[in-house]
Every structure is written in C-alpha cells, then in structure tokens.
Amino acid sequence: MAINHIRCLGGFIPIKEIGGLLGRRTFSAGGGKAKKGSKGGGASDAPKASILTKEVKSTTVVGANILKDGADPKILPDSEYPDWLWHLLDKRTPLSELRRKNIETLPYEDLKRFVKLDNRASIKENNSIKAKN
Where do the record's region annotations for Disordered lie (predicted)? Predict the structure, then answer.
C-alpha cells in the first residue's frame, strides 16, 4: 500500500527524500539524537558526592528537615527519646504461636493481637471458599 502512495508522489518528491521519510522515527519526543551511553532520565543521574563533613553527619539527622527555612534536627542522647521508640522493631509473636498458648493467660496486648489476626485469617479463608464456588 505504501508503495502505491510512493509511486503517486514519485513525480513530486525526489526518491532520496522518500527513503529518508520512510526510515525516520517521527514519534520520538527527544528530537531523534541521544547522547552516547545514556538511557534517558535526567542530565546527571549519578549520585552526587557528599559535601558534608563527618562531624556534621554524626551529629545531625541529614535530610529530615521538611521545611524551607528549617534546619536538620540534632541527634540527641538515647535517654532523651521515649521508651516505646526502642521497642518498635521488636519481633511480635505470629498467630500460630498465639494459638498454641492458653488464651486466658495472655497479656492484654497479645490477646488483642490474637483476636485481630484470627479475624483476619477467618476472613481470608471465607473469601477463598467463596472464590472457588
């Protein structure tokens, strides 16, 4: 089909220009020329070297400031932070272990966790049974 259109235009456009038009990608937004070795992205995607000194890095939380005019917060001694902060990464008991224990002897937090996880497991089981039907 394209050949027929080329034959129709043959008298108006030189053959060299037709070959250039057919072989060219015209849907590219970059203008057709890319730098050697680049895969797109910004002008410099490489990580920048840090200009902060070791002393500043060890005394401040770098990058924690979210305000335009603010400064990065200083690192405080451990005694200045609340106690609950040190337990955030503690491992919590999974549902299988909670099921093995006596429910009446569980502390309130573990009992609350057991009820939540058990409800979640029963909902997932009911959903899988309904999905098979």
Answer: 29-49
CB 40, CB 28: distance < 8 Å: no
Which two three-digit tokens encode residue 48?
Answer: 């920048």
Beta partners for residue 74, in sequence order: 60
Residue 60 sits at φ, ψ, to 5 deg, of -130, 155
Non-local CB neighbours of 58 within 8 Å, separated by 6+ positions? 75
Distance CA 118, CA 129 (A): 17
Residue with tokens 């034959």: 7
**Spans of all domains in the chain:** 54-131
How confident is the model over 34-59, as pLDDT tens digits? Answer: 556 555 555 555 566 567 777 777 78
Distance of CA 98 to the CA centre of its chain: 33
State the pLDDT at residue 45: 59
pLDDT at 116 over 90: yes
